[in-house]
Each structure stands twice: as structure tokens, then as C-alpha cells.
Description:
Blueprint: H1 34-49, E1 55-62, E2 65-76, E3 82-83, E4 89-91, H2 96-110, E5 130-131, E6 138-139, H3 143-147, H4 159-166, H5 171-180, H6 195-209, H7 213-222, E7 231-232, E8 235-237, E9 243-245, H8 250-253, H9 258-261, H10 287-292, E10 302-305, H11 306-317, E11 321-322, E12 325-326, H12 330-336, E13 371-374, E14 380-384, E15 400-405, H13 418-430, H14 441-452, E16 461-465, H15 467-470, H16 475-479, E17 484-488, H17 494-498, E18 511-514, H18 518-522, H19 527-544, E19 549-553, H20 574-588, E20 592-594, H21 597-600, H22 621-632
Parallel strand pairs: 16-17, 16-18, 18-19, 19-20
Antiparallel strand pairs: 1-2, 1-15, 2-3, 4-10, 5-6, 7-10, 8-9, 11-12, 13-14, 14-15
Helix pairs in contact: 1-13, 2-6, 2-7, 19-20
Amino acid sequence: xxxxxxxxxxxxxxxxxxxxxxxxxxxxxxxxxxxxxxxxxxxxxxxxxxxxxxxxxxxxxxxxxxxxxxxxxxxxxxxxxxxxxxxxxxxxxxxxxxxxxxxxxxxxxxxxxxxxxxxxxxxxxxxxxxxxxxxxxxxxxxxxxxxxxxxxxxxxxxxxxxxxxxxxxxxxxxxxxxxxxxxxxxxxxxxxxxxxxxxxxxxxxxxxxxxxxxxxxxxxxxxxxxxxxxxxxxxxxxxxxxxxxxxxxxxxxxxxxxxxxxxxxxxxxxxxxxxxxxxxxxxxxxxxxxxxxxxxxxxxxxxxxxxxxxxxxxxxxxxxxxxxxxxxxxxxxxxxxxxxxxxxxxxxxxxxxxxxxxxxxxxxxxxxxxxxxxxxxxxxxxxxxxxxxxxxxxxxxxxxxxxxxxxxxxxxxxxxxxxxxxxxxxxxxxxxxxxxxxxxxxxxxxxxxxxxxxxxxxxxxxxxxxxxxxxxxxxxxxxxxxxxxxxxxxxxxxxxxxxxxxxxxxxxxxxxxxxxxxxxxxxxxxxxxxxxxxxxxxxxxxxxxxxxxxxxxxxxxxxxxxxxxxxxxxxxxxxxxxxxxxxxxxxxxxxxxxxxxxxxxxxxxxxxxxxxxxxxxxxxxxxxxxxxxxxxxxx
Length: 635
């Protein structure tokens, strides 16, 4: 087979036509607090600053929607630096076990091709049962024992010795070792996490299906769910001993452009630096999977991105189906996440971890039905059940998945992810509670846009407000000044602004121009209550960003004679009443008050000048020119 440079294996973000990405929503839209989730950002950024990890990607799935998605730090720090993105593809390491091997095993069981109680020897005749030292007791090792890590097989195998004996790659040599190796204990009497269990499952899947694990998983799992950037990446050593890939991933096979895009399109996160100075990138980190199984292995080898994994989690949370595409039955999913009665005290389900010592990534607050898995490279998946009223006792279940992807073994191994995983799980779990206020779909659309924008910095000037501010468009151009950020949202209220200040204040912007209140008038609030909410907002800004120069702008007039906004009828004179109180508020808090109101009123009235508006509320270009002229004096 012709050997291909590793950079051919990487996908371009724009080529995701077949993917079934989850709907992106603001955390508040699914009953989570985005402000609390900032503690997850803080924990990850601290780990990066301490050089425990180069970077990370975090995703939270709730109610089948993507509630939080963020990239941090760098995906590569050697030999050069490359930033992490939410599209980065990770070596999933042992998360491959539940993501692929276990699910494939259950797919075959659901199709009547095997039983979980079948002896392993039914499919691998040479496979030895456990026999006591005196030879008087014997017990068969079954497929379920492999899935739950209760078979007694050793945790791992001596890779270097096996390579010397069998060569590389040698899947048959790997199986020959497993069928004859020692059995450490009687099946179902103890738990011992073992990669050999899942390499054995791989051989069973391939024997029953007549396909490689890679092809079976692709056709029956990854393709079904539209996981377009999930695959095993075959590899081997070249003549110089360097690890290279030997086949394109499926996503690249469907894209002729990748052969000309070269290394600038690499999306795979590298892992460990090798003794020759090269870095594994697209070649599985796990030694047995790489050396003995050539990259396609039951214990490791899956490469995936956070959006693909999110779809898989959503399917499992939804009883095995997502977007009309089913991979398992509801009872199949339930079996896979349930600890079997025969090993009820040992904590391992038929594919996932529930409460063994390895399950610390579940954190302290998710319910007892939470299940998950981790990968040695730094990956982690946890899934808390979807509550099913009337069919299951799921009082504490939250229909939430937490996906934390890190290449912690880059550029060198030696950093533990145990504590960070648990910290993140705790933050996410603690962010789940009813939101006191819900806003419009447009509000959350803009909210997500702000989340994805570069963070506010101390050099920025921020325009905060409602449709008048958002409608100003590019304030940099209007004011002929750089670093002006438009944080207006059509229809926003004072408390809507208050509830999103955590997207602004941590950056301690240089200046902040606040204009709010007219939408609150339309909600039949009194002048006193509106000013009280603005006072809360001002005080929070001063408390959390004391060095920010704050400008409080008066409300602009409106003209109710246009008849467009019925809820403003009869309320024209509320505006000057509110403005008078705002001027006092500004003086009391020692901030600058910008009185825009008289610049826009018809002479002798409190109404907006007709030539400055087309609907009685919003400004036309002539109106913005007046506003800009007033603001330039403060720039």
C-alpha cells in the first residue's frame, strides 16, 4: 500500500455537509446559568496557565441541544504553536471503548448475531477459561465479562516484547497473546480495567460481522449519526521508524480537495513527542493500538471532534436515536448503561463506568445513574440520564452530557487530568437550575454571537443597549475609532443587559456607554422600577469593573402617533420623567450623564422628531448622525 503523508488525513471545517450538528442554544434556554459556567472557563484557563495542559475543548449537551461550546489555549505547542478550535479532532484513547467497541457489540447483540452471555471461546476457540491453581475449579469468560472488565484478563500487555515476537502490526499476534495469557481472578468476582478485554471484543466483532472494526463502526454507527469527522486512522512505521498513516480517513476520502490543501488544514490535536523529535499526530497514542493493531483497535484508536461526540451523547440520552437515525434500541441503551446484577457491587456497566474508582470524572453532583468514560490522552465523556417520568426513578437525572477534550500528553506525558475533569463536572452540574428570566430568541442568538467573539479587553469601548444600539451597526466606522464593540440587542430590557454583563465586565473595558429602558416602558413598568433596575446595573458595573469609564445615556423620545408600537401608547411623558431620575442617579454615582433627549424631540413636545424615524421609535441615518455627534465629544 502506498504510504501517505499524515497531513492528508485532516479535515477542513467547511467540509461538514453530512454532519448532524446539534442545535446551538444559550445555556439559559435549557435551564442552565451561563454566568456560573464561567467557573469552568476559569478552571481550564488555570490548568493552561499552570502548563498542566496545552488547551481544551468543552461541550455541554442538555435536552438534546448544545448548551455550551468553547475552545481554550492551544492544540499544539511543539515544535510550533497552533490555537485550539472547537473543530479540533482528538485522539479519543480509551473513550474509543464505549464510543465504538461497546456500541458495536450491542448492535450485533440486538441483531441476534451474538449474546452477551456467549463464551468468548465460541468466537475465538483457542481462548482459555479461568482455571483455579489446583485445577479443580473452572469458569468460562463471557462477552459480558469483557464489557464490564470483570474477566480477570491482565490490564495490559508488554508491547515491546510482543513486537519483537510477532512484528508490527500483528493483530493475530496480539490475540495469540491474549488467548494464552494469565487470568488474574475468577470472572465476575472482581473488577480490573483491561485494554485486553476490548481488544478481544474487537476480534469478536470482526469475526461475527466479517468486517474490520473500522468499517463496521463507520457503517453502523458513525455514518448513521452523521459523525463525519470520526474514524480510526490506520498507521505503521515507515522504513526510517517514523509513524505514518497508511490510509485516508473516511472524511478525506470523500473530499478531493484535501490532497492539495496540505498541512495548513490540519485539525488533529498532536499527542506525545517521540524520541526522534517527531510528534504523533493522527497516529493513535496507545502503544498496543498503534504498534500491534496498526491504529484500528478495540481499546483505542478512534479520532473524533466534540460536535460528533455531542451527537452521539444526544442519541444515547434519547434512547439510541437522534434526528430520525437510530443506532440502538432504548432497552439496548439502558442495558449498556446499567451495571449487571451479576456484578452489581463492582460499578462497571456493559460498556461504561458508573461508580468504580475510574469514575471520578462524574464529579460530585450528578446523580447515581450518571455514566461515562475517560481516555489516557485527556479525553472525557459523562452522561447523566434523561428523566423519564412514570417509567424510571430519575429524580436527580438532568439529561446532560459533559464532553471535555484535552491532549494532555502533548508535548510530553506526565500530567494528570483526574482533578480537572471532576472540577468541570461539578461546575456544569451546579449550573443547572431554573433561569429567573427568559428572553427572546434573538436575544440568545446575539448572546451566542458574543460568546464566540474575541473577549472584551481593557482597550475596548463597549456600546450596550437595545435595538437602537444594535441598529447602529458598525460603531467603529460611525465614530471613526477602533475597538468599539456593539453589544446591543433588539428588544433588550434592563435586566436582559444585567443578565449578560458577565460577557463584558471580566474584560474591564476602557469605556462603556449604556442606553436602556424604552422596552421596559412597553412592559408597563413604572418609572421608579425602571430606574431602580438601571441603578442595579450601574452598581454592578462599578463593582465588577471599577476602572471602566461609564457613561449613562438618557432614553430617547418616541412618537406614538405612528401607531406602530401599541404598548407605548400614552407613555410619551414617561421618558423625561425617567431621564430626570437617571440624571440624579448619574450624579450620585459620579458617572457621566449624556442627555440625548432634547437633541431628538419636536420643539415644545416630548415626542421624537418625525424626520429622524420611520416607525416612531427607531432612528434613521439622520438620527444616528445626531447621536454620533453627541458621542464623539466623549471619545
